[in-house]
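[Q] Does anyone have a clean structure-token version of this?
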Amino acid sequence: MDLLLNPVEVRVLGSLMEKDAATPDYYPLSLNALLAACNQKSNREPVMLLDESTLLAAVESLCMKGLALDISGGEHRVHKYAHRLGEVFNFDRREQAVMGVLMLRGPQTVGELRGRTERLYTFDDLASVEATLNHLAERTPPLVTKLARRPGEKESRFAHLLSGVPEPPEQYVPASSSHVAPSPSEERILRLETELADLRRQFEEFRGKFE
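[A] Here you go.
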């Protein structure tokens, strides 16, 4: 199946997959619940601020592609929405959890995926996460790819391919052909900025547990 989804469609499907696994009693989602899920500030990268018309356009597009369902009538007095990725791609719970996190939070390392899929599926170890990623990458067409490491990164990250092949990571390009090493003060600033970004990420994850 050759489907290319835009960022809003990916956010909609990722949100539906998350709520399906994490809060099944409240799934399928009404339009308001889906809008709130898409615009969450926790467990989302990037954070979006979608309006109702943009959301409806994405949902209608996904329904036309056979990736979402508009459920109404009978016991459903209002329109409710569900995803069909599990059926379309024959995902098991492990694959659905990994794809959902990649769709909602962007490229992730194996360790990040294990920690961030806990609410959706509990992996025994890192090897089982990596095995799931490899299985998704070996599909025809592949659904996941391993990204080249960016400067300063110790581990490779994985990304979904529902929106096509991700752009290559930004590379540092010196202003001139001669390389100038950063001064000790510049190195200290860079290190502090990295530590601050990591602290912010940890705080957002901690806060997300109480939202």
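[Q] Thanks! Anything notable?
[A] The chain has three domains: 7-88, 93-173, 180-211.
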